[in-house]
Structures are given as structure tokens and as C-alpha cells.
């Protein structure tokens, strides 16, 4: 590929003003808004936490201190490992994975129905019904789950009225409310990629499989799911990344002793007053999540280009 | 037949999950109880809405959010369009790479985007020796930039799906007829993507309004609607938050129904064209107007609801119940599993005016047994029915009732 040649061809096709517009906008976005801030944060995460007056002074050197802290804890730590923070990270990843699988399980049937089961007006109405709850603010959605799952919440009151359990169950402390709330928040992000993938499947293939004597379970396992794999990967990636990176729902729905990794980042930034360490934690979160997603895509043989389609 | 029943049942469950929490939240907005809940139901009231209008912090935040949303729309829409146009022109290989780069900001956790934006501009400001009152430390500026970072990708997706249906021969024809590339762009391509500009703008605005993860870092000392809401929810919740939900859901439904009317009209265009009444009726303008009028009536009716009499009565009932506790320290408690209750009750007369002692089993430790209401003076417990110990919460004053389970 000849960059010079393709660029001039690009300019010729679009004319100078439009070319300038395209390059300026994309350049500002990719470099000024995405790349440079990320690089700065990476750089910052290797620096010592100094008051503004000492920045640029002799103490302003590169250090691995913050990453060391994440792994080993403070230097007075006897066990050798920072079990608390590492535990929070592992818990966050496992919980996000659980939320993702939960969403996949409940959304797949709906997406399939939407794509192949209902026609015309019904499908539009279903889509509308799916979208409306997601225009409600993220904070309010979490708040709704807090009302639902609280000790005096509807679920506890109903359960006790029916005699299913005696005392209020602590749904919030045991993180049930958090998982339900996170799963709820990203339903739409799971359904639409699935729907897009399944919708483009030729219905004749389904009929052919049925005619040949396949049961519905076989049809799904052998025909629909392999075909919809890019959509499944896309939905799962989005739900996983967004629930691992969620902050509002864990702050509102999380139990007081169960932290989400993003809350650690938030704490180092706000109450902790240690920006470089917050940056290091943010980088760790990003790298671990992206690494995990890449690994899963490699395992299931999907390309990253499938995301967002 | 069985399959159909199963499908219907599943959909029912699914939509119960989808709408149940919202319906319950909406219900709590009209209950006069100080803690958002449906039971015990005290009085139908609209006072929580009045409380909202008096909340200056929330209104300031709303104003800021609208400004930021506008800024985000203005910046992110052209960027999204540019990115989509660029993607539609490059070769397959470059396209895949670019697409990955462009889509990445959606997947990066919002916390990371917020942080990096804040740090980057802080460093730029520091390098330029700018004061803290300059743009680099301004909450509006930083929040707009931070949100644009990923909202541009949403806009790009909207434009991409529109551009997929664009016929490039149209542009070629225009060029062949002697138009300059700029003319072709302005006269052919822009009109074609115009509808998508609207949807991208709406999407960007909504995404900006509801964003929290990025905003909470970049907003610095300012506040937005969402950050005010979050701090309200985290530090003491009351039903006025549910009232916000009622307003938002109401607006959403109005917008959705108006949009649906517009869609139906295009779908049925052929059939209703001949019928002038139907044609007017299905027009989105009257549908929207009707909904606005209905909403107006609801607001007017709501503002006339006077729940003070009922609330006074509930308060009276609470007092009476309180009195009952005072005079009869061992109420009709079906507490077979609280041997402590009678003993504590027996100790109560020693100091009848100390409220804590009056609770049956009230000093039974931090984790109250199921049969013991933690504090009879908490309004929830005194509400009619609140005396039934098995339903009593650990402490209705604890926001969210985070107190550990009774065991």
C-alpha cells in the first residue's frame, strides 16, 4: 500500500475542503481525545505521587511503585501479596462474566423470537418495549433495584407474606441486587447484536433442518448458534466490558463490604488523593479486561471486527 | 400448543423483569411514606414532585447537563460522520483496523476515559502554566471532551448503518455531470445522511444526559443531573427520586408513542391516504399534542391532590401506636422465639420515657431477632401493620436497609 498515493487519491475523490474536514475531525478524535490521554495516563501511572510544587523536580522519577502496591500491598504487608485488591479484581471479573452469561441466556430466546418468531407490527412493538426502559437514567435503574431488593422492599415483603422465608433476606449485602441490576442495565446491548445476527439467517435453513427431522434444540445448536457466533461474541464483549467497568451500579447496589474494582480506582482518585495510583489501577483494569476478551475471542475463534455490528 | 404457551410465559417473565422494577419505583413516588416503598401504603400524595421543584441543586445540575448535552451533540456529530465517511471509503484491510480503533472507546470502561481526560488536560494546563480558572480545569470543557470520546463512536455507528444504503453511483453521476467533489458532498451525500444526523444527535444527547462513569471524574467541581442524582441516591434516599423516574418515564412514553404514530403513518401511508380523518388522526402532531394535553391534565390534577388530611391521620395512628407501646410495654407480640422480650419489657417501667427501652427486645444487640422491631419510633414500624414483628425491618432509617440479615 502506498500511503502517499492513497492519500492523494482520497483527497482527489473528496475535494480539498471535505478531505480537510474528514482528516481534522478523525485526527482530533483519535489523537487528541483517545490516544494522547491514554498515553498520558500510562505515563502518569509510573510516576511518584507528588504535590504540584515538586512536579518536574528531582523526585519526579519513573517508578513501579503503584503496580508493586497492587501486587504486594504496602511494604509492611506480611503475607507478601495484596490479597484484598487482587481479590477485588478477580471478583469483579468473575461477576462480570456471570452477568454476561446471564444476559446471554435470557436474551437469546427473546432475540430469536424477535428475529424469526414475530412479524411486522408485533416486532416493532416488542422493540419499542425493549427500548423504553433504557431511556431511564442509569442511576434511577439502580435505584429501582434498591427499592425492589431492600430489606423492606417488595421482594422481601412478598416473600415473607407468602411465607417463603421468615426474616428479610439481605439481597443487597449478598450482591444479588447488584447482579440483577447489572444484568438489567445491559440487556439491550446483548439483544441487538444477537437480533442482527439471527435476523440475517435465511429462514429456509431453519425449515430445512426441521424437515430433515432435527429437534428445535438441534436446530439451535447446529444452525442458529454457529451462524450467530459473531453477534454472540459482540454482545458478550460489550456486556462484559461495560459491567466490569461499571461504577454507578456497584456504588448504589453493592454491599458495603463488597467492592467493585472501579470503586478502588475512584477511591484512589477522590478520597485517597493518589492520582498516579488511581491511574495505575485504571490501566490494570483496562489491560486485564481487554486481555481477557482477546483470549476468549481466540478460544472461540471470532475476529474483533465483529464487535458493534 | 405447549411450545406457544412456554414462549408466552417466557416473554411474560422477561418483560416482568424489564418493567417490574420501574413500575414499583413509579408507585413509590405516590406514597407519602418517607422511605420509598409500596407497603405499608400510607397516603396517595404528589408532594414529592413539589419537593423536586424546590431542589436547587438538582435544577442546577439539570441546567448544566442540558448545556453539556448540547456541546456533546455539536462536537460528536461531525466527528461521527467524518469517521463513518472515512470507513466507507477505505479498502477492506485498512477498514478493519480503523474500525477497531474507532469502536474501542465504546468498550473502554468509562472510568478509564474520564480519568485519562482529566489527567491529560491537567498536564497540558500544567505545561502551559495555566491557572485553575482556565479551560483545562473547567468541568464543562472536560466533561464535553470526555463524553465526546465515546459518544462519537455511537454517532459513527448510526451514520454507518445509513451509509450502507447509499448508492455511490449517485456521487459518481454528479461528478460526471461536472459537479466539484465539494458540491457532490453538499448536494448528494449530506441530504442523504440528513435523517441520520437527527438520530445521531438524539442518541448523543441522551447518552450524554445519562452518563455517570466518565462524568463523575471530569466534572470536577461542577455538577450534572446524573451526578447530583447519584449523590442523592448514595446519601439518603427518599421518594422524590422516584418522582424523577415518573417524569422521565412519562416523557419517554410520550416521545415513543409520538414516534410510533409517525412510523405507523408511513407504514399505512397507502391505506389511509384516501381517508382524510384517519390521515389527520394518525399525524404525529395531534398525537403528540394529545399526549401533552393528557400530561398537562395529570399535572394539574396532581397538583390539586391534598394529602395533608390523610397524612395527619397516619401520623395520629402512629402516635396512638406509640402510646400503646408506652402504656403496654409487652404488646400482643407473637414472639415465641424472643424470651428476651418480656424481660426487657419488664425493665421498661423503670424508665418509661426512655424510648429505647420500650422496644420489646430493643436492647437485644446489634442484629435484632426477627420478632423484634428495632425501634418502634421509626415511622415505618408504626405505620398500620408495622407492629407485626415479622415484617419489621432492621432499621428503616438505614438508607437502603443495608443492615445485615437477622441471623
In short:
The complex is a heterodimer of chains A (309) and B (407). With 309 residues, chain A is mainly alpha-helical. Chain A has helices spanning 3-14, 16-44, 65-72, 83-117, 120-131, 138-149, 154-161, 176-185, 187-199, 203-211, 216-227, 229-244, 248-253, 261-269, 275-300.
Q: Percentage of helical residues of chain A?
A: over 70%
Quaternary structure annotation: heterodimer
Query: Using DSSP, what is the number of strands of chain B?
Result: 0
Sheet/helix structural class of chain A = mainly alpha
**Alpha-carbon distance between the two ends of chain B:** 46 Å
List the helices and strands and how they pair.
The complex is a heterodimer of chains A (309) and B (407).
Chain A: H1 3-14, H2 16-44, H3 65-72, H4 83-117, H5 120-131, H6 138-149, H7 154-161, H8 176-185, H9 187-199, H10 203-211, H11 216-227, H12 229-244, H13 248-253, H14 261-269, H15 275-300
Helix pairs in contact in A: 1-2, 3-15, 4-8, 4-9, 4-12, 6-8, 9-12, 10-11, 12-15, 14-15
Chain B: H1 2-28, H2 47-53, H3 56-89, H4 92-107, H5 110-127, H6 139-163, H7 168-176, H8 181-210, H9 215-218, H10 225-234, H11 240-267, H12 269-272, H13 276-282, H14 284-304, H15 308-327, H16 340-347, H17 355-358, H18 379-382
Helix pairs in contact in B: 1-11, 2-11, 3-4, 3-6, 3-8, 3-10, 4-6, 5-6, 6-8, 7-8, 11-14
What report would you give on this structure?
The complex is a heterodimer of chains A (309) and B (407). Chain A is 70% helix and 0% strand. Chain A is mainly alpha-helical. Chain A folds into two domains: 39 residues, no CATH class; 224 residues, MetI-like fold. In chain A, helix 1 packs across helix 2 and helix 3 crosses helix 15. Chain A starts with a helix and ends in a 9-residue tail after the last helix. The model of chain A has no long low-confidence stretch (mean pLDDT 83). Chain B is mainly alpha-helical and 407 residues long. Chain B has three domains: 50 residues, no CATH class; 183 residues, MetI-like (MetI-like fold); 91 residues, no CATH class. Chain B has 18 helices and no strands. The longest helix of chain B is centred in the first third of the chain and has 34 residues. The C terminus of chain B is likely disordered.
